Amino acid sequence: MNDKILTIFGGSGFIAFELVYKLSDHFKEIRVLSRNIEKCKQVKVIKNVDLYLYDPSNTSSFTRYLKDSHVVINTVGILNESRKVTFDDVHFNFVKTLVSKSRENNVAKFIHLSALNADVNGPSKYLQSKGKADDYISSNNDTKFKTVVFRPSIVFGECDSFFNRFNRLLKYIPIFPLACPKSLFSPVYVKDLSNFVVESVLTSQYDNQINNVTGPKNYTFLELIKFILKVTNTKRIIVPLNYTLSYLQAFVFTYLVPGNIFTLDNLKSLQRDNITSDGLKGNTTIEEAVPLYLSKKSNKLDTYRKKAGR
Ligand SMILES: NC(=O)c1ccc[n+]([C@@H]2O[C@H](COP(=O)([O-])OP(=O)(O)OC[C@H]3O[C@@H](n4cnc5c(N)ncnc54)[C@H](OP(=O)(O)O)[C@@H]3O)[C@@H](O)[C@H]2O)c1
Predict the structure, then answer these.
(1) C-alpha to C-alpha distances, 176 to 179, 195, 206, 245, 261, nearest whole angstrom
(2) Tens digits of per-residue pLDDT, 123-182?
(3) Residue 133 needs a FRET pair 20 to 30 A away by CA distance; which of 188, 236, 288, 292 works?
(4) How far apart are CA 152 and CA 275, in angstroms?
(5) Distant-in-sequence, close-in-space partners of 77: CB < 8 Å, separation ≥ 6
(6) How many domains does the chain fold into?
(7) Among 174, 195, 214, which residue terminates a domain?
């Protein structure tokens, strides 16, 4: 692939960073597309990486970068929609355009980051929009246009949103009400997930497949929160909420508190356990990797993330 071009969308994202690092040795050129290239400074230092500003709502702002691209990776995603930007806009309509323009430009492989439990009939708008996109992508593959979809459970790593976000929240909330404490997750390490993606880029092993990706162990939400407290040596009172109180909390956070901390749509997504027995499994446990970055030293990271606007 050393004479080929890779184009990746959602360049400032946590998973995109890891992929660009891992793939930079394998391509002549990597085009990183972002709505805010200031946030992509970390990858700018790599010799064969070029950053390009684009507007997802303006097709002509990105189609030229698809020209001569051999592989396109889409890592664009949101956890919450707003009045201005819906899940369908970001997860489905944008993907439809990207697939169609990629085909027009003879892209050989289209790789897409979806989410575990993505399903057109799923319980939340998030999962439905992800499922619609996965179905659309898969219905467009053929011998000339290969597609690969990855559906990870929660992904952890130094700049993850799950462990870092809950760590920050736990710092400021001494009595912590926890919605859906029994919901199950199978966290997968970002480097393990990226290894699968890299393999899908370099080989035909995953061509035209949809792959669930999980970690080596399952945990309840409550276990994950207790794990954060243990790693950071923090004492907090956790109050597990039943469904009615979880709903009430999500309602308040959706309509009365700004910041999308926990919305009704998030609550609906949690009605399906984020685990599976099939698909690809990473080896790295949270016990091995999370303490390396979620210790007392994490204050530094907080400052970095704040500066990066994440
Ligand atoms: N992290 C997880 O635990 C996890 C779990 C399951 C699935 N996933 C999926 O994996 C993909 C990558 O996740 P991630 O953790 O790397 O997410 P992330 O750090 O939030 O990155 C997603 C990127 O999407 C772009 N984006 C955000 N809002 C957008 C909008 N309104 N329009 C267009 N682009 C927008 C941003 O890139 P720019 O600002 O650079 O344009 C952002 O950096 C996502 O599709 C996510 O749903 C992640």
Answers:
(1) 10, 36, 42, 13, 13
(2) 999 999 999 999 999 999 999 999 999 999 999 999 999 999 999 999 999 999 999 999
(3) 188
(4) 9
(5) 10, 13, 90, 91, 113, 115, 130
(6) 2
(7) 214
Q: Which tokens sit at 270?
A: 């949690």
Residue 161 alpha carbon, nearest atom of ligand 1:
1
| Ligand 1 centroid, distance to 224 Cα (angstroms) | 22
Distance in Å, CA 160 to ligand 1 centroid: 11
Q: With beta carbons less than 8 A apart as the criterion, state whether 206 and 199 touch.
A: yes
Residue 143: CB atoms within 10 A of its CB come to 7
- What's the CA gap between 16 and 74, in Å, rounded? 9
Whether 11 is in the pocket of ligand 1, judged by its Cβ within 6 Å, is yes
Distance between CA atoms of residues 108 and 148, nearest Å? 11
User: What predicted TM-score, i.e. pTM, was given to this entire model?
Assistant: 0.95
Per-residue pLDDT tens for 232-243?
999 999 999 999
Report how far ligand 1's centroid is from the alpha carbon of 77 (Å).
4
Tokens (6 digits) for 116: 């575990």
**Bridging pattern class, strands 184-185 and 219-220:** antiparallel
185 phi/psi in degrees, rounded to 5: -130, 155
Could you tell me whether strands 5-9 and 29-34 are parallel, antiparallel, or unpaired per DSSP bridges?
A: parallel
* Same-domain pairing of 99 and 39: yes
The finding on whether 66 has its CB within 6 A of some atom of ligand 1 is no
Locate 171 and state its tokens.
């710092």
Q: Which atom of ligand 1 is nearest to the CA of 187?
A: 3
Q: Do residues 198 and 61 both lie within one domain?
A: yes
Beta strands in 153-281 (DSSP E): 155-156, 175-178, 184-185, 188-189, 209-214, 219-220, 237-240, 280-281
Domain housing 172: 162-184+217-275+283-307
